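Hi Y.,

Following your request, here is the sequence exactly as I used it, all 294 residues.
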Amino acid sequence: MALRIDGKKTSEQIKGEIAAQVEEIKQNGGKIPHLAAILVGSDGASQTYVGAKVKACEQVGFQSTLVLLKESISEEDLLSEIQKVNENPDIDGLIVQLPLPKHISVEKVTAKILPEKDVDGFTPANVGRMALNWPTYISATPFGILELLKRYEIETSGKHCVVIGRSHIVGSPMSILMARNANPGNCTVTITHSRTKNLGEVARTADILIVALGKPEFVTAEMVKPGAVVIDVGIHRVEDPSKKSGFRLIGDVKFEEVEPIASAITPVPGGVGPMTIAALLYNTLQAAGRRVYP
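Below is the corresponding structure, written out as tokens. Let me know if you'd prefer a different format.
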């Protein structure tokens, strides 16, 4: 049976390490890290995510500011709200919760955030630094995956890594990070997507399979090489009357089928998901300490 890579436990470890560093900063009279989040509109899922981020800030001893804006806000007014945070020397990190209303350009909003406060790692400057293997803020999900591989001591050097999915948030950065000269890294990487021919055959050549396609239980047992490490980034709600909530969560991988074949696997829930907030907190700590942009 495969080793289950426990993201929940690992994220709690990281939060504990961050809390200890914040306590040390306090004792030395240093500046407490401060994260600001901008939430536009009243989308339920977005409110839940932002609420979890604010709660996590409290948990590790950070300061946090939540800026709530109406869905009808103009793009110009949102950009000026971002500028206010950019100019506030007390705030170290800024996230703008996605998705945004249709009348607002995600590109303009992302580009407006100061790179040194971009703890989501989405600005063109930080994506470019990541591609060049310069010090930067790595976006939350890729960072979480790297930490899981590192902390579970999964060998990546010389391995064949297949990434399924090419989004700017996960697939594309993962392909760059797994190929870089670092640990984790030094893989030979193949990036695949919906147009890849014989995707199943390609996936089966992977020593490390990272699945970020956004299709429920897309990867089945016949697509996985025996002994492969499988990282499942997907998360989907499916109806389940037997559950109190009326639904259960599944990933992009058919877990029950693949677990007996893999050497290690991330479950859904409890795998990659919990690592995202830990990554955000880590990046904010880096920002407060001016470790990326001195």
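Residues 29-113 form a domain with the Rossmann fold fold (CATH 3.40.50.10860).

Thanks again,
Q.
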